C-alpha cells in the first residue's frame, strides 16, 4: 500500500532507460496524456455500496473502460493459462488411478517420484524466470514456456518406462515454473489495492477449475480405451495438449506486459497514461537495475523471509497435491468414473471459497488480508485432525475431504499482500513473489516422500497429522506478518511526517 510521498518517489521514469527490449515511445505517454490521467484517477478511491459488488463501479467512466479492457484480456488469459497449467500438472494423478498404474506396473512409490521430478523442475525455474520478467517482455517469455509444456505433455502418452515419465515431468515442471509467479507479478503491476485481491483470487480459482476439468475429462476419455491403439489414460495427455496449445499461442498476441513498457494493441495512449498514473498513486515502483545494494536490501528485510514462510505453510498445508481422496475412493471399490469425479466437488468448494475470501477481504475487512487466511488455517486444523484420527464414520470422512476445499483459496490473498508490502521496489516484488512459490515447492519436493507415502495409503497417518501442525504455523506466521507490517507502516509515517515538517 502506498504511503504519503510514494507517488513523488516512484513517478520518475529514469528506470525506463535501462529497458532495451522496446522503443521508449511504446510505453511513455505524452505530457497531455499524463495530465489528463491525473484528473481521472482518484488518489484514494472513494467507495460506496456498489464497491461490494465490483470495485470499478465507483470509478470514472474512463477508468472503468480501461479496467474493462484490462480485465477482459489479462484476467481471461491469466485464468485460461492457469487452467491449462493445472490441467497439465494434475493429469498424472488422474492417469495413475485410471489404468496407468496397472499398465506400467507402478506398485511402489513411483507416483511420489513423478511428482518430485515435476517439483524439482518447477523449483529450479521460478526465481530465474521472475528475474527474467523484469528484463524481457513477459508477452514473449511466458507464452513460449506455455507452448513448451503443452508439447511435452503429449509425449507422456508414448512413455513406456518410469524413467521416460520422470524426465518429461521434470521438464514440464521447469516450463510451468514461469506461469503462476510470473502472472502474479504482472497482475500486481496493473491493479490497485482495492482491486488486487479479487483479480488475484479469480486467477487462482482457475487452477481449481483445471483440477475439476481434469477429473471430468479423465472420466470421459476413459471410454476411449483402445481407440487408435491408445489406452484411456494416454488419451488424457493427448487431449490436454489439444486444449492447451491454442491458449498458449494466444499469449503472444494478447499479454500486455507491464504498464511502463506495454505495447498492447487494445490500449490507447490515454489508457497507458492512466495505467502508469494508477501505479504511481499506489506507490508501485517501475523496473530498475539490479545492484549489490538492492540485493542486500531485499535479503536483509523481513519481507522475503516471512512471506516465503507464509506461502510454504499454505502450499504444503492442504494435502500437498496428493490424490488422497481418489485413492480412498478406489480402496472402497468405487468405479473409475466416480474416483475421478467426486473429488472435483472439493475443487468446486475451493473456487467458491476463493471468491468469498477475495470479496470479504476487499470489502468487509477493508483491505485486510489476514482474517480469511486465519479462517482457512482453522478449517485445516479441524479437517486434518479428524482425518488423522481416521476411525471416524465414512460420512465424516466424506465431509472432511470436501472441506479441504476451504483451505485452498487463500493463495491469491497471500500474493496480494506481498504486492502491497513490497510495492515500493519492483525487483523486490518480483523476487519475493517468485521465492514464495519456489520455496513452497522446495519443501513439496521432499515432504511428500516422508509423510504422503503411497504405501501408507489411504490412511496417511503421518501426512494428516503433519497438516494440523502446518495449519497452526500458518496462523502464527499470519499474525507475525500483520504485526511487522503495521510496525513498518507506522515507522514510515513518522519519517515522512518529519520530512514534511
UniProtKB/TrEMBL annotation:
<dbReference type="Pfam" id="PF07690">
    <property type="entry name" value="MFS_1"/>
</dbReference>
<feature type="transmembrane region" description="Helical">
    <location>
        <begin position="234"/>
        <end position="255"/>
    </location>
</feature>
<dbReference type="GO" id="GO:0005886">
    <property type="term" value="C:plasma membrane"/>
</dbReference>
<comment type="similarity">
    <text>Belongs to the major facilitator superfamily. Allantoate permease family.</text>
</comment>
<feature type="transmembrane region" description="Helical">
    <location>
        <begin position="464"/>
        <end position="484"/>
    </location>
</feature>
<feature type="transmembrane region" description="Helical">
    <location>
        <begin position="372"/>
        <end position="392"/>
    </location>
</feature>
<keyword id="KW-0813">Transport</keyword>
<dbReference type="GO" id="GO:0022857">
    <property type="term" value="F:transmembrane transporter activity"/>
</dbReference>
<feature type="transmembrane region" description="Helical">
    <location>
        <begin position="201"/>
        <end position="222"/>
    </location>
</feature>
<keyword id="KW-1003">Cell membrane</keyword>
<dbReference type="InterPro" id="IPR036259">
    <property type="entry name" value="MFS_trans_sf"/>
</dbReference>
<keyword id="KW-1133">Transmembrane helix</keyword>
<feature type="transmembrane region" description="Helical">
    <location>
        <begin position="302"/>
        <end position="321"/>
    </location>
</feature>
<dbReference type="InterPro" id="IPR011701">
    <property type="entry name" value="MFS"/>
</dbReference>
<keyword id="KW-0472">Membrane</keyword>
<feature type="transmembrane region" description="Helical">
    <location>
        <begin position="163"/>
        <end position="180"/>
    </location>
</feature>
<keyword id="KW-0812">Transmembrane</keyword>
<feature type="transmembrane region" description="Helical">
    <location>
        <begin position="398"/>
        <end position="418"/>
    </location>
</feature>
<dbReference type="InterPro" id="IPR020846">
    <property type="entry name" value="MFS_dom"/>
</dbReference>
<feature type="compositionally biased region" description="Polar residues">
    <location>
        <begin position="22"/>
        <end position="37"/>
    </location>
</feature>
<protein>
    <submittedName>
        <fullName>Major facilitator superfamily domain-containing protein</fullName>
    </submittedName>
</protein>
<feature type="domain" description="Major facilitator superfamily (MFS) profile">
    <location>
        <begin position="74"/>
        <end position="488"/>
    </location>
</feature>
<feature type="region of interest" description="Disordered">
    <location>
        <begin position="1"/>
        <end position="42"/>
    </location>
</feature>
<feature type="transmembrane region" description="Helical">
    <location>
        <begin position="341"/>
        <end position="360"/>
    </location>
</feature>
